[in-house]
Amino acid sequence: MGARLLRAWVLRPRIDLDEITARLDAVAELKSNTVLREEVRQNLRGVQDLERLASRATLGVATPRDLAALRQTLARIPLVRRFLANCAAPRLAALCEEMDELPDVYQRLAQDLAEDPPALASDPGVIRRGCHAELDELRDLGQHSRQIIAAMEDRERKRTGIASLKIRFNQIFGFYLEISRANLHLVPADFERKQTLVNAERFTIPELKEYESKVLAADERIAEIERRLFSELRSWIAEQSPRLRRTAASLAQLDVLANLARLAADRRYTRPEFTATGELSILGGRHPVIEQLLEQQGERFVPNSLFLNGTTHQILLITGPNMGGKSTYLRQAALIILLAQIGSFVPAEQARLPLTDRIFTRIGAADNLARGRSTFLVEMSEVAAILNLATPRSLVLLDEVGRGTATFDGLSIAWAVVEHLQARTRARTLFATHYHELTELAELLPGVKNIHVSVEETPSEIIFLRRVEEGSADKSYGIEVARLAGLPRAVIERAREILLRHEQSEHQLSEKLSPGAVPANGASAQPLLFTAIDREVIDALRAANLDQLRPIEALNLLAELKKQIS
After folding, report:
1. Nearest partner of 323 among 518, 127, 478, 121, judged by Cα
2. What confidence tens digit (pLDDT) does each residue in 413-431 have?
3. Which of 226, 43, 204, 65 is nearest to 134 (CA)?
């Protein structure tokens, strides 16, 4: 029950601050009170899937062992409520109130159902002894049959003088007396022959036939009574299903809250704080899954901080090498917000968050060729959905937009997407890219900032530091990552030659475009593919009425615009 509820919470995080706060208060109390938390979790271990058991009873398919599991679960509820009785958190107190102990249901199950019932209702032993008088009498008859048969067998041996006489039973002939062929001359006249074998013959007597009728009738009657009583019990349980489901919902929520508290205590999670300022501030944030995987391998996760708002830090352009941790940084931000809005503590030293209405992601590569949708078309469809649906309260994560087409096409699209997000959508955005040209937007658009994932470069290798710092990266180190992936050495060396040739070509182009302009650090400059046009120039051109403009006025306007853009 708890697993299903947790999945529902993750798929549908809340945007109601009161509900989130109530959950966080409950998690906080369970986190701080270790004894309470572990006692609750210990008792919940004996709780079965109450929702499913109630559904099976309602559908009339519950087995005897299903009802035994229900009885076991109901026995745990008073213990759970006892531990919640003095909790201060309003949500825990409410769950304690909503939990129905169902004493009448437990009492009837304890009285009617056997302690260890069989798997199927058609098997004997479903109903507890003492529940039905006739059933107990019939069971006694069956249980004492061995003694009755043994006494009858002993009496007939003495009467006939046949020491090897035996009374047996099978499904075809029922009860019979078996006498070896050597003793047939001692058989009395009242013995009635039933079957002849190679070495023996089988007989019956009136007393044995009468007892057989009683025993067989008793078995059928036992089965009939047990089926009826079990059906009545199951139907009565089905009538209590609304109460069972309400209690199941309370137990499921308590299960989720207790385990969120355990995770918060074991993994050093902190309580998030929700603010109305629109600022998203995460100090020392960590990825909850990757952190655990690294700890299992004996490594340490490098935490990183994040700051976003709707004005000065609306869009962060993230550059850096492949495998440096850009995608991890994006995803851990989304997971921290998601965890906070289901009512969980978060993997960070501190988290001050706004209420987020949606998390939009454009990460990875996928296609749908059966419907004629290429990888790039799927990518653009996802970007289109983000641009059309995101609001200023949304979080947008974009990873490598525009990489599925020609370089200039992809760069143009990525550039325009950033402009649209900054000017119109106004959503808080993390935009990871290898288009280093996009870093110029930080100087052109307010609210756009550059950050990068740092590395340390040595003559023989690069070391991924996993730290996110301010500023932009100047390289992607793609060839080094390809070397780590195991590409042949000849391919790596040839790639370096081609890269050097392209860098020299771009450097020469840069010198032609700007004579004498050589970068101070000696690095090869990238050509400016997108030069920002002053908005005042655009507005002046739009306002000009060319039909009524005299030639001298047109020349003056052109000179003024050229002066502005120079």
Report:
1. 478
2. 999 999 999 999 999 999 9
3. 226
